[in-house]
Amino acid sequence: METLDQLLIEMLAKGGSDLHLSVGAVPKIRIDGEVFPLGDRVVDAPHMEKMLKEVTPPNRWEVFQREGDADLAHEIPGHARFRMNLFRNSHGIATVLRQIPSRIASLDELNLPEALKDIAGYADGLVLVTGPTGSGKSTTLAAIIDHINENTSKQIITLEDPVEFTHTDKNSTILHREVSEHTKTFAKGLRGAIRADPDVILIGEMRDMETIRLALNCAAMGMLVFATVHTNNATKTIDRIIDAFPDAEQNQTRIMLADSLRAVVSQLLCQKVDGGRVAVHEILLMHSGLPHCIRKGALSSIRNIIDQNRDQGMISMDASLSKLLDEGLISQEEAYMKAIDKARFKVT
C-alpha cells in the first residue's frame, strides 16, 4: 500500500506540480496544466484516511473533521514542500497537493515584467496580485518579497493559510504567521500584525469584507500591503473589492480604494507551443487619473489608462497575449481562450 509521500515523490519524478486524490478514483497528477492518471490503483476510503492522517497534525485533522475542509503545508525533507487542501466530495475524503518550489526564484529568473521591481519599491499603499487558482500568484509575490528583502531594510510580515514560501532574513526582517496555527483568522492576524510595526504586509488571500477593510486601513496608515484576489484583470479586481461590501458602504470603500490602490498585477499561465507554460500579465500602475475613475465608478476608463501608458510599464492582458503570439510562444487558439476581447484573436 503506497503512502502519500511515495505518490508525491513519483509525481515529482514525472514532472508533476499537483497531486489529486479522491476516494473511488485513481491518483491523478497535473503536468504543464494537463491532468494524467498516476498508476491504475483506485484509492479506497480506508487507504485514503490512513494516508492523510499520517501526515496531518491532529489539531488540523480535528478542524477538517469539524468543518469539512482544511489547508496546511506538508514537507518531504530532501524533496519538496507542498500546499495541501483537505476536503470532502460526494465520494468521501479528497485532497489536492501542490508543490511549492524549495528555492525562491528572483523576478529576473522568472522573467517577470520590470514594472514589478518598481512596485517592490513602493513605500505604501495596496498592491493586488490576481489570477485564477494555479496561475502562479504565490510565486510572483514570493519573488517581489524577496526583492524587497534583498534591497531594503524593512519589517515584513506575511499572513498565509498555510505559509507557502519561507524566506530567510537578508537586509529585511521577515515574520511568517500562519492562519489556524498562529492566529484564528486572516482578520485577527492582520489586527495583530498592525501592532508589530510592519513596513510591508503580505496577505495570502483577501477572503472576506473584514480582511479587505483592514487591508485598506493598513495601506492608509502608511504600510505597503500585498494581497491576492481571484480575478483575471484590473477592472474585475476593483469591482470585486467594492462589491464585497454592502451598498451603504460601497461609496466609502471606493474612496478608500482610490486613495490607497497602487497597482494591480493580473497573471495567467498559457500553454506554450513547444510545451510547458508561460506567464502573461496585465499591469495597472499608479496614475493621476486612476483615483477619479475608482471614485466615480468609471472603471471602463481604466482600460484607456493602461493602453495609453505602456511606456510607464502598464500593459493590458490582450496586449501581453499579442506579444507572446507574435513571438511564436503561444498558439492563436491559446491566445483566444485567454483573451478579454475575443474578436481580436478570433481563430479563422
Supply the helix-strand structural class: alpha/beta
Distance between the termini: 51 Å
For CATH, the homologous superfamily of the largest domain is named as: P-loop containing nucleotide triphosphate hydrolases
Strand order of the largest sheet: 9-8-10-11-7-12-13
The H/E string reads: HEEEHHEEEHEHEEHEHEHHEEHHHH
Oligomer: single chain
What's the helical proportion of residues?
Answer: 25-40%
**CATH fold topology of the largest domain:** Rossmann fold
Question: Can you tell me the residue ranges where pLDDT is under 50 for at least 5 consecutive residues?
Answer: none
What is the CATH domain class of the largest domain? Answer: Alpha Beta
| Major sheet | 7 strands, mixed
